[in-house]
Amino acid sequence: MPGAARPAVRASGVKLAVRDLTMCYENGHTALSNLNLSVSAGEMVVVLGSNGSGKSTFMKCVVGLNRPTGGSVKVAGRDLAALSGEALRRARLPLALISQHANLVKRRSVLANVCCGALGRHRTLATALGRLPRKEIEPALGYLDEVGLLHLARQRAGTLSGGQAQRVAVARALAQRPDVLLADEPVASLDPEAADEVMRLLRRLATEDGLAVVCVLHQPELAARYADRLVGLRSGLLEFDQPASEVSSQQIASLYIAEAS
Length: 261
Ligand SMILES: Nc1ncnc2c1ncn2[C@@H]1O[C@H](COP(=O)(O)OP(=O)(O)O)[C@@H](O)[C@H]1O
Ligand SMILES: [Mg+2]
Hints:
alpha/beta; Rossmann fold; 6-stranded mixed beta sheet; 4-stranded antiparallel beta sheet; 10 strands; about 30% helix; globular; disordered N terminus; binds magnesium ion
């Protein structure tokens, strides 16, 4: 059986700690205000909120695609704001982000796409030129096995269905060996069955492999089914952060009611 054994369950404890996170864009728009959120190993948190409530801004601030204008992001206890250059790059390696679209390289094989996730851990001339490190192939097969797509390893990525492509994107994220997996609307372009499959996968990665998972969703019923905790964002403010079983339908509905102007 090719592929690596399932990765060891990660150490427990808080993996992502966000304190007073604020993001004011250059045009003066404040998209996030003093947001606090902690996510532990093995936990799955789903973020809900209407369009424009700041969900993607939050994800981008955490992974460093946005530079927050205030507050701190700690990953595995290290404050990213205190780091720069190579130290910052390394401190961000435990963070992997998947998005609505899998963004695979369509003409390359599924396996090659998964191996790409490992490139951040290799900084050689060969990898800079796009060559895949041979020693990453075996683990990449393991990640494909983990997402149930080992049989498609040699297939061109462009031939996959939307649901398969998103599971390959998850395998590519796993090749980064993250502690924290961020997923920004990962099922928004999938049919209900494929969406459920991706959500089951994310849930399993939290429960069995100990990843801290933060997932943005637009489907409250999927959120309630899979999340440990629900976080509600409204106009860049945290409305609630509670165990999923304690969040009422009124609380969820309140996120989607337009503000009085
Ligand atoms: N680069 C940007 N410059 C200015 N405003 C932005 C930028 N990106 C997002 N915004 C604004 O910030 C708010 C939150 O956006 P976003 O985080 O994308 O929301 P969501 O993901 O919840 O739909 C929106 O009002 C959006 O228009
Ligand atoms: Mg968004």
